[in-house]
Amino acid sequence: MSLKWASVPLFLLLSITSGLCGASSFENTAVVRTVELGGSVVHVTTTYAIRALENNLKTYTIALGKEDRAKTSWVEVKVKGQDNTLPFTERVEKHLSLFDVTLPKPLSGNKTLNIVFENIQTHATTPWPQTAAQNEDQALKYTTDLFVLSPYSTLVQRTKLRALTPRFISWAEPQGIDAFVGDAAVTKNGANVVYGPYKDVPPSTLDNFLEKYQQPVTVHYFHEQPVLEVRKLNRAVEISHWGANINIQDDISLYNAGPKLKGHFSRIEHQMQGYNKKGAPHVLPALTLGLPPGIRNTYYYDTIGNVSTSKLRVAPLPPKGAQRSQYSILELRPRYPLLGGWNYSFTLGWDAPLESSASYDKKTGTYIVAIPILTPIPGAVITDEELKIILPEGATDVSYVTPFPALSAVMGTHVTFLDTVGRPSITLRYKNLTLKHAQEIYVTYKVSTLAHIKKGLTVATALFTLFVLAGVARRLDFSINRKKKVQ
Amino acid sequence: MEYDALKTLHSSLPPFAPHIPVGVLPVLALVLLSTTFVLAFYFSTLPKSTIPAKEVAVASTASVLGGFGVVALFCTAGVYV
């Protein structure tokens, strides 16, 4: 006798299968997913209010669908209200990503906890329409899965999509989910589009649930800020012990990932927009960056040459150990405003005193340097970064720790001024970086005094060679007529 | 060493201090390079002898002073080598 799915009440069926899967250890009393819609960066915060059904439970599993996981570049799990993050391990099962989070304390029966699962998605929105004239609006589309996945049953869940401005063009109506809907499947109030609340959702990681109910929903909204993407960032950090200096140089390829420009660029219209203070939302006339405090010798140039349309206000260097430090503000104005689909590549670099970034451990003779991974550009995603750390010549015992793993790490040699064998360099590659990734790498190395002095001795050797050549040259006779000795 | 442990160690250690303070470097560059120039001139006036002991002595001091003078000059000019 074949079992007909449609003849068995769905919740009974799924509770049997969930019991078999061992998904009865927790119950989600409420799940709220807040999606903050942006341009190139979308911030998704999911809060799980969990209740333990058994005693002594140590791990809680969070599920993420395949498309959502592919777009995610930052994952952080915390207990609501606390600052420290919870450790988790990720595994892939069929086409779902499961995060096993270790709870701070084992949870006993009927105790509740609120877990906040934060992730940042990059390249998640697409401009729609894909072209826009200079004075037209910019609209983006964002697609996500309707239900928040969880291997445990959920009493009530909702998804809230929040845009910066309350201007939505359309949002998808979910189909075939009447079993869970209370009042309405989707509502819009103000700048929020809310899918839910959906009641009594069974464990949603099971295949039959996913096939029957899970569906993508697309939201189409106006976005008032340019969608920025740094396609390639090459950051070179060079450390000098003779000059007590750390030089950071960024080669940035900036791209406006908004709707491509339709028609031509009219300079007159652009001037009028600037004059009326009513700029088009997808045009980027200027960019403000926060650089470290206490920098000097800042340079900003592109392929044509130096760009003078910039303004830098340097923040004073705080004493070492001070918690708060201000940013130096740099307002960059590229040579031309960045319209949709336009590129702009430039180089930005500065020197900073090495005392602000490096420390010395006298007992072991090692230097520790803190190297920032990127300069945060608000609202932008860095698609590809290559970070090259160049240590002084003769550095030994080089090791480093990173706050999050890099795609690849290569040790090499970099040759520059007054070098003999070259300087040790570490090249790290990253992908899809956002503001949350703006942390520091710590590098430790040793430089012996002889290796330090070697630079001066190298130049001394070169000069001595010149002296030897001079000594030989004075002993040679180059006169055409040799003077005859008087007999 | 683990990330957080290294981070706290870094914040507790004294900051980097160069062997020669950076403010001294321009003065040092001037002094060393002018001495090198004088010694090179003196080298050019030395008599030629079979065992060039004096020439080698003057040349080696001039080149060592000049070597460090050039490094100090690079740092003064902003090329932090």
UniProtKB/TrEMBL annotation, chain A:
GO terms for molecular function: transferase activity. Its main location: endoplasmic reticulum. Pfam families: Ribophorin_I. The chain crosses the membrane at residues 456-476. It comes from the Eukaryota. The keyword Transmembrane helix applies. Residues 1-23 form the signal peptide. It is found in: Endoplasmic reticulum membrane. Keywords: Endoplasmic reticulum, Membrane, Signal, Transferase, Transmembrane, Transmembrane helix. Pathway: Protein modification; protein glycosylation. GO terms for cellular component: oligosaccharyltransferase complex. PANTHER family: DOLICHYL-DIPHOSPHOOLIGOSACCHARIDE--PROTEIN GLYCOSYLTRANSFERASE SUBUNIT 1, RIBOPHORIN I. Belongs to the OST1 family. Component of the oligosaccharyltransferase (OST) complex. This is Dolichyl-diphosphooligosaccharide--protein glycosyltransferase subunit 1. The lineage of its organism: Eukaryota, Fungi, Dikarya, Basidiomycota, Agaricomycotina.
Automatic annotation (TrEMBL), chain B:
InterPro entries: TMEM258/Ost5. Its main location: membrane. This is Dolichyl-diphosphooligosaccharide-protein glycosyltransferase subunit OST5. Subunit of the oligosaccharyl transferase (OST) complex that catalyzes the initial transfer of a defined glycan (Glc(3)Man(9)GlcNAc(2) in eukaryotes) from the lipid carrier dolichol-pyrophosphate to an asparagine residue within an Asn-X-Ser/Thr consensus motif in nascent polypeptide chains, the first step in protein N-glycosylation. N-glycosylation occurs cotranslationally and the complex associates with the Sec61 complex at the channel-forming translocon complex that mediates protein translocation across the endoplasmic reticulum (ER). All subunits are required for a maximal enzyme activity. The keyword Ligase does not apply. The keyword Chaperone does not apply. The chain crosses the membrane at residues 20-44, 56-80. It comes from the Eukaryota. One of its GO terms (biological process) is protein N-linked glycosylation. Component of the oligosaccharyltransferase (OST) complex. One of its GO terms (cellular component) is oligosaccharyltransferase complex. Belongs to the OST5 family. Keywords: Membrane, Transmembrane, Transmembrane helix. It is a multi-pass membrane protein. It holds the Pfam family Ost5. It is found in: Membrane.
